[in-house]
Amino acid sequence: QVQLVESGGGLVQAGGSLRLSCAASGSISSFNYMDWYRQAPGKQRELVAGIIGDRTYYSDSVKGRFTISRDNAQNTVYLQMNSLKPEDTAVYYCNTQFAARNYWGQGTQVTVSS
Question: Which tens digits make up the pLDDT trace of 2-44?
Fold first, then answer.
């Protein structure tokens, strides 16, 4: 059983920054990948960024503004979000897969005001 707990969301003005954290109950070095997704009201959940080992990937909408990183010692994955836009407003979720099971956190709300 893996538990993922997101934190760091909040209300920020356009152009501002936030750093999200995803703390895992297990050793993240044993997970296949760690992803960040987001879901805005009335929209489907979408992949924002992910990390496999030291390799990272991003959606086109956040490339150059968001940075995903990991701290294996803290079993935590981070999402640094800069130059935030109102369209980044969503609930952000952490996701991973371990032992053929998919795990999600409870989400953290990010609201960007114009």
Answer: 999 999 999 999 999 999 999 999 787 788 899 999 999 999 9
The SS3 assignment for 73 reads helix
* Interstrand relation of 76-81 and 18-24 (parallel, antiparallel or unpaired): antiparallel
Q: Which residues pair with 53 in a beta bridge?
A: none
What are the φ and ψ backbone dihedral angles of 95, each rounded to 5 degrees?
-145, 140
Residue 49 neighbours by CB under 8 Å, 6+ apart: 35, 36, 56, 57, 58, 59, 62, 66, 67, 68, 79
Written as six digits, the tokens of 100 are 């053929």
Each residue's pLDDT tens digit, 48-82:
999 998 899 999 999 999 999 999 999 999 999 99
What lies within 8 Å, CB to CB, of 80 at 6+ separation is 17, 19, 66, 67, 68, 69
Token duo for residue 92: 């952000």
Cβ atoms within 10 Å of 43's Cβ, excluding its own: 9
